[in-house]
Amino acid sequence: MRPNSASERGRFFSALEEEFRITKEEARDFIPEFHQEMQAGLARGKSSLKMLPAFIGRPKGTEKGNYLALDLGGTNCRILEVELDGKGKARIKTVKRWVVPRKIMKGTGTALFDFLADCLASFLKEHPTGRKEKKRLTFTFSFPFFQPSLNSGTLIRWTKGFTASGVEDRDVVVLLTEALQRKGVKGLRITALTNDTVGTLMARSYSDPACDMGVIIGTGCNACYPEQGKRIKKYPGPGLKGEMIINMEWGNFDGLKSNPYDVLLDRDSPNPGRQLLEKMVSGMYLGEIVRLVAREMIARHLWPSGPGRLYWEKSYSLSSRDVSLLAEGKEPWKKKKEWDLNTAEREMVGRIGGIVALRSARMAASALAAVISWMDPLLEKKHTVAVDGALFEKYPGYRSWMSEMLWEIFGDKAKKIRMVLTKDGSGIGAAIVGAVAVTLGSRGRP
Ligand code: GLC
């Protein structure tokens, strides 16, 4: 280290904080811009927000029975059997998890759907279906898809690092059905297709009528909310009465101020120019931004030398989970011994992580505030926001940073907004979607 590097490092961090800062004023300016994009997206105008009708409204809380859910979120795939008691209580009876191998995420669509069919086959072998209801399956597919009905949907574009070929522009329910046939899996009927945000909203609103937003802040970042039928201008066919949930795909919002690290990350990503909000907020990218900052510090001779160098050379070698653990002063999740970091490096990762995660939380809160004020401009009602995802749940301080931002935007009225961690929302909610599907039929409009 050079003799003056402590003060140089201090200057570097002040500049870094500045580059990642979101002021109260910026957050307030962000809201009308976000509203414009929402409005355009609802009217099929040009918009970075896809605003996809989900062909379902919120549940009544009286839905009952046992349902299966296949949940493909990102790096994990889960199958769950959920029991709904008809009085607002949902219980996971069985759950099985698989990690989706990287070569499957990036291979062919056939291999991906065969993998899902194999997961279903192995689940059904251990938990054979008995009663008729158990054979109804909801597919939670946590990617942007255009839905012409509740039980079909065409993938618009992969996100979160998936690139499996031959899936974009195809109906994923058809692809899953074909894979089930190839693998000889019988007796399942896919009754609904849903997004994880919709599942999360459904899971909480099953017992909480004040719940009107589902948000995911994990590997990806997105939100949904119930929209009044008359505001969904692009809805095909006769005008909609009542409400329909809209999967916003807000991760693609692009009216944001980016810094040099964002530009670098986007340039080298599999989807440049897309998912810009997601790239600044979600767990898939947080570790990578920290790595890019660390590399810059190494280049400027500001990094405390240590064994961690290997980390800084390989893209995406630092996970947000590691950053989160280091920020808490815990052991990183070691994959390889030679990637161990010394104490000074750990502190450094924690410090950079804090700056990047603070921006993430403030940006997520600003987007959340925009949706709440779209639904309720004067903030007259109470709103429960169901949130799931590891960043929200586990990153030290994340949740309070979001609350602080809401207070900066709304003042005292922020107390009307309650963020509730809704764990396993995408799986439990899928079961509720399945139950509502039974009452609606496959067209599924409320
Ligand atoms: C990505 C997907 C979106 C999903 C989110 C959270 O943004 O495009 O559909 O809801 O990740 O998993």
Portion in strands: 15-25%
Q: What global shape is seen?
A: globular
Topology, number of strands: 13
- Rg (CA only): 22 Å
* Main sheet: strand order: 1-11-10-9-12-13
Give me the secondary-structure category. alpha/beta
Bound molecules: alpha-D-glucopyranose
Main sheet characteristics: 6 strands, mixed
Total of DSSP H or I helical runs spanning 4+ residues: 15
Low-confidence stretches: none
Give the fraction of residues assigned to helices.
40-55%
First-last Cα distance: 65 Å
Overall mean pLDDT: 92
Order of helices and strands: HHEEEEHHEEEHEHEEEHHHHHHEHHEH
Please explain how this structure is put together.
It is a single chain. The protein has helices spanning 5-19, 24-42, 102-105, 109-126, 172-182, 196-205, 260-267, 276-281, 283-299, 309-313, 320-327, 343-375, 390-394, 398-410, 425-440; strands at 52-53, 64-72, 76-85, 90-99, 136-141, 145-149, 152-155, 189-194, 211-217, 221-228, 243-247, 383-388, 417-421. The termini are far apart. It is globular, with a radius of gyration of 22 Å. It is of the alpha/beta class and 446 residues long. The site of alpha-D-glucopyranose has 17 residues, from helix 6 and strand 10.
Question: What tags apply to this protein structure?
Answer:
5-stranded mixed beta sheet; 13 strands; globular; binds alpha-D-glucopyranose
